[in-house]
Amino acid sequence: MAEQPLFEQIANDIYSQGYSVREAALPASLASALAEQVRSLPDDSFSRAGIGRQQDHLKTEQVRRDEICWIDDSTSAGADWLEWTGELQNYINRRLFLGLFSFESHFAHYRAGDFYKTHLDAFRGQQNRVLTVVTYLNPDWQREYGGDLVIYPEQGDAPLMHVPPAMGTLVVFLSEEFPHEVLPADRDRYSIAGWYRINSSAGSSVDPES
Ligand code: OGA
Ligand code: MN
């Protein structure tokens, strides 16, 4: 498999530190197909993102301002993305025995000034989102535009890393362990956020819509 060295690096990073940040990791042709698709989507295919079961829109707006569109395999870029993330899933399951079972992901569009305040993607014991994958669809992104993803340790305020949302950068981390936030940029910022879940059909709760 062509991606084997990359997937091995990601698995090693997750094993040793729980997170992985790899630049230019997404295959270039896949990144540009996705970048093209997200910009060609009609405005009404995006909707304001929520925060879990939170229905209070005013409160949500204090936390996150991005708009999202879920990805399926009805376009070739979407299908290729799901195939690629499926290969990563298989690789990580073989190497780390995480038992990743399903994957869901959305495009996110942050307009100038939009942000997503510090949050966790999953809560301990809730057993839904196990591993987060984020990638960026912004060609020629410059550091001074802002829009960094800031990753924090489980405890403490000193960031582990600032990640500019540069085309093809891939970020993977354990969803329950790393608080993170998206800083505002001075222009449009496009990303994909996705989550691998373990099979939690034994639980009775309805999955959060975010
Ligand atoms: C998310 C998220 C990060 C990013 O959607 O949960 O943290 O950089 N996104 O877009
Ligand atoms: Mn997140």
Q: What would you note in describing this structure?
A:
By secondary structure, this protein is an alpha+beta fold. The protein has a single domain, classed as q2cbj1_9rhob like domain (Jelly Rolls, Sandwich). 26% of the residues lie in helices and 26% in strands. The protein is built from 4 helices and 11 strands. The protein has helices spanning 4-17, 28-40, 57-63, 76-96; strands at 19-22, 47-48, 67-70, 102-110, 116-119, 129-136, 149-151, 161-163, 170-174, 180-182, 189-197. The chain has a 7-stranded antiparallel β-sheet with strand order 1-9-6-11-4-3-2, covered by helices on one side. Helix 1 (4-17) crosses helix 4 (76-96) and helix 2 (28-40) crosses helix 4. The radius of gyration is 16 Å and the shape is globular. The protein starts with a helix and ends in a 13-residue tail after the last strand. The mean pLDDT is 92.
Which tags fit this structure?
4 helices, 26% helix, globular, Jelly Rolls, seven-stranded antiparallel beta sheet, binds N-oxalylglycine, 210 residues, alpha+beta
Summarize the structure.
This protein has four helices and eleven strands.
Approximate strand percentage: 25-35%
Which ligands accompany this protein?
Answer: N-oxalylglycine, manganese (II) ion
**Order of SSEs:** HEHEHEHEEEEEEEE
Mean pLDDT, rounded to whole units? 92
Helicity, in percent?
A: 25-40%
The coarse silhouette is globular
What's the N-to-C terminus distance? 32 Å
Say what the CATH topology is: Jelly Rolls
Overall domain count: 1
Major sheet, described briefly? 7 strands, antiparallel
Question: At CATH's second level, what is the architecture?
Answer: Sandwich
Counted by DSSP, the helix tally is 4
| CATH evolutionary superfamily | q2cbj1_9rhob like domain
Q: How many extended strands?
A: 11
Rg computed from alpha carbons, rounded to a whole number of angstroms:
16 Å
What is the CATH C level class, in words? Mainly Beta
> Unreliable stretches, pLDDT < 50, 5 or more residues?
none
